[in-house]
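User: Can you help me understand a structure? I only have the sequence.
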Amino acid sequence: MKKFIILFMTFMALVPVPDSFGKDTSTTLLLKDTNVDPRLPVSSTISCVYSAGVLTFSLPSEIQFATVLITSETGELWSGMVTQDYPSVEISELPGDQTITLIDDNGIEYTGDISFE
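Assistant: Let's start by predicting it. Here is the structure, written out as tokens:
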């Protein structure tokens, strides 16, 4: 049994561990107002950061709350709410490319893409 344990420990020491093991990943996403004339420059953006299972939005002071939708080509994957007091939500990592839509308390939509790799 002792030889088995030594052999197992030696084998585990030789197995490569991926660089991303145990590390947080984060992505910054700028959500753009989709209700403006596309010929005009975008005047309002919202920063969105994903890190360690938490999606955090930097809401401007005029937005008190917003609905957040995460969708892919196959449909809606997740929805929730954020507020000025609680601008973060916990989500599981969703594989591949996703679209995030934020609808503020005035009905204005912001959208952007994020990729979980």
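Now, to help you interpret it: The chain is about 10% helix and 50% strand. The first helix runs from residue 2 to 14. Let me know which part you'd like to focus on.
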